[in-house]
Please model this.
Amino acid sequence: MTEQRTALITGANRGLGLAVAAELRERGLRVVVTARDEAEARATARDLGPEVRGHALDVTDQQTVDRAREEIGPVDVLVSNAGVLLDSGSDPLSVSLDLVRQTFSVNLLGSWRVAQAFVPDMVRRRWGRVVLVSSGTGSFSRGLFAGSPGYSLSKAALNGLTQLLAGQTREFGVLVNAVNPGPTRTRMMPNAQRTAEEAARDIADAATLPDGGPTGTFRRGELTFDW
Model:
């Protein structure tokens, strides 16, 4: 009998994170949804099904991350989805550096903080899947998008974190990959053509890769992008 894996998704109370949680539940994983607001996380969990758990987790707050780790325990799959877009319409010469700092606090350091909390257990158990939700705006091969400079640079840095974590964990059966979901219709991009459910399938594919699968890649669906 195959062991049921446990997946934790950050920022899972709406949008893409919620769609990922629903997709992974459909694929047979035990799902833990997290959000800054505990009531929202628990309400989302109830909506998804009786076996889904909801917990408070603010990726910018070390205490809540540590508390979530104590309450939830080890997980097999981590989807780092929580993110913000605060500087749309800006440019590198005039963007508020306070907005840039806030963006990095969530998009880069938040993902890093959660990885430090949950990935060491995967290493000790010699199995794990980590997906960092990135963006094509952070690809050097395509050129960073100057219209949201803080966001784009934070995703480029997240791609770098992907490679660092993959290099540190590849010999322990832990696969770490970044996924570019493409422009996705969420509160962040309400006019995008791609639905959250469509994008969630790409993320879920990376979260359920077979043993020996790729690690340290920047992906969308079956495609692998240059950094």
Summary: DSSP finds seven helices and eight strands in the chain.
